[in-house]
Amino acid sequence: MTITHFLDQLDYTLWANNRTLASIEALQESDGKAQAVKLLSHVVAAQYIWYARVSGKPETALPVWGVLTLDEIRSRIPAVYTLWKEYLANKTDSDLQALSFSYKNTLGNEYNNTLLEMLTHFPIHSAYHRAQVATLVRQNGGAPAVTDYIQFAREEHKR
């Protein structure tokens, strides 16, 4: 794995989160829409939490299951993307294994993970919850966003 790979994953996450947000915004108000907002809020919050862990800036963390407004989600998606882009800008491929971080999870359990493990986790975690949002969108009469990585690659890499 390389930093370039994870920068691509970061671009993909931004792209997919924005598409998911648009699919939620198109829904009529319902319990399903509220659940979808809660899940996308969690995705965004988790990206801030992981950033806080690697950057040493705990003030950037959001409540893990806090609910953001659609406007807050819309503004925080690119903001957390920028934080991660800036953080990774001066990292090298060797930093992926060399850097490790001790932290407490939201339950207070202590862990230590490498940058590689963290950067592998958060796009997968985000995709998992975006799939839950897609199900809620479909169940509530909406059109789920296409957020497959291959679609991102086709559109953004122009292959």
Would you write up a description of this structure?
- The protein is mainly alpha-helical and 159 residues long.
- The protein has one domain (3-156): Four Helix Bundle (Hemerythrin (Met), subunit A), CATH 1.20.120.450.
- It has 6 helices and 2 strands.
- A two-stranded antiparallel sheet has the order 1-2.
- Strand 1 and strand 2 form a beta hairpin.
- The model has no long low-confidence stretch (mean pLDDT 96).
The third-level CATH topology is Four Helix Bundle (Hemerythrin (Met), subunit A)
Order of adjacent strands in the largest pleated sheet? 1-2
The first-level CATH class name: Mainly Alpha
Shape: globular
Low-confidence runs (pLDDT<50, min 5 residues)?
none
* Tally of alpha and pi helices: 6
Main structural class: mainly alpha
- Strand count: 2
Mean pLDDT: 96
Which descriptors would you attach to this protein?
single chain, 159 residues, mainly alpha, two-stranded antiparallel sheet, 65% helix
Write the layout of secondary structure elements.
Elements: H1 3-25, H2 31-55, H3 70-88, H4 95-98, E1 100-104, E2 110-114, H5 115-139, H6 149-156
Antiparallel strand pairs: 1-2
Give the gist of this structure:
The protein has 6 helices and 2 strands.
